[in-house]
Amino acid sequence: MTGRYTVIGAGAIGGTLAAHLHRAGHDVDVVDTDPGHVAAIRADGLRLRHPGGGETVARVPAALPEPGAGELGAVLLAVKAQATGAAVDWIAPRLAPGGWVVSLQNGLNEDAIAARIGAGRTVGAFVNLFADVEGPGVIRGGGRGALVVGETDGRRSDRVDRLVADLQAWGPARATGNVTGFLWSKLAFGSMLTATALADAPMARLIDRHRAVMHRLAGEVLAVPGAVAVERRGRRHGLVVVPTPGDHPARGVDRMLAAIAEEGHVERLGLRSLSVPQEHSALLEARFRLDGGGDWDWMWTTAAPGPVPGEERLVELDDTADAAELVELAAHSPRGEGEPGTGVSELWLGIRDDHGRLVAAGAIQRLPSGAPHLAGIVVATDLRGRGLGAAVTAGLTRAGLADSGVCTLGMYSDNETAARPMYQRLGFQLGQELATYAVSA
């Protein structure tokens, strides 16, 4: 346990977390600028009403931000973004030498906080809680949502790990090495939600109907940083750096690569690879020591393929029980990334011949975004050209689309003749031409 928490801003977010932390036995103080809210908490406790009925009453000390307040340790800042400056001005002279502030706010407030108290004492968080203030001292919860906490420079830290452990009292909080990415993604998504206020219809329906407009709105937000870095999991764990819409894509990619290099992210995050659009590979070579790599295409589809001969022969395989056979088959395609037996792949489909030998297989893995990604598709060399790869790919694609409505895959660029026509027949289209290189710290 971290010890005592001071929650500054006891509204929907701060009040919810304060109540859960107190219920779990943590020492919690709350500070709020609303005299009526503070008076109600002092008199009747901080009351958190649950979606399914019932309520939690947290008897926590509550105060206005008065001049005589004592020293602060771990601070959970949950005020409106526009109140950040005043809140941090009050916090700064009271923050203990080992104290720190985590921003549990909407917007990008971490730089403003760091400018006042120092980057080393500032922690970021992506917060998506469903709650509202019903009245003085009363919060109405609407479900768990999501909460992701991380150091702004991407490093692992004991304080973030302790905070995340303590926040399990609320729900599935987790740590990240890319909290800035979460915050920018939230801004981009928020721009789409704001646009839906123009029509009286469910947000999800409007976003789905007007995808082109929504893409442009999100693109305008993400054009500000110039580039984004997306985590790539698996044995080639790394970052994929792509430019956001704008007039200077090379400049955006180079700025992102410079930040990765200067902040030591290769070593800090344990990266094994970095990827950039193929036309920007020289920028990667200029900033990092590379240990070889190659070109590949990222492809995607949202349309189910037509019937493919051989799909009726598909059987589901077990990542553990069938690992030995999958490893033996994978030797026919050494560059494959199915990684059988490791738990990385969540669904395997395969085809056996009349003697029970496994002759074709492929897997679905999960991207950090949650999208299904096809991997490790392999056909025994003596049976290639008979449509087995197409049958496996079609079956996996249907499973991915049924799960998420989208499916992605990666194709090595030198596999142009055999693979690309097949993927295109199955409905996949080119998303990005990438170059990936192994890196070392």
Notes on the structure:
It contains 14 helices and 22 strands. The strands form three sheets. The protein has a ten-stranded mixed sheet. It has an eight-stranded mixed sheet with strand order 5-2-1-6-7-8-11-12, with helices on both faces. By secondary structure, the protein is of the alpha/beta class. It folds into four domains: 174 residues, Rossmann fold, CATH 3.40.50.720; 44 residues, no CATH class; 64 residues, no CATH class; 133 residues, Aminopeptidase (3-Layer(aba) Sandwich). 32% of the residues lie in helices and 30% in strands.
What is this structure, in a nutshell?
The protein has 441 residues and is an alpha/beta fold.
- Name of the level-1 CATH class of the largest domain: Alpha Beta
| Unreliable spans | none
**Strand content range:** 25-35%
Overall average pLDDT: 91
Tell me the quaternary state.
single chain
Major sheet attributes? 10 strands, mixed
Structural class: alpha/beta
What's the overall geometry? elongated
Task: Figure out the total of helices.
Answer: 14
N-to-C span: 34 Å
Could you give the order of strands across the largest sheet? 13-14-15-22-16-21-20-19-18-17
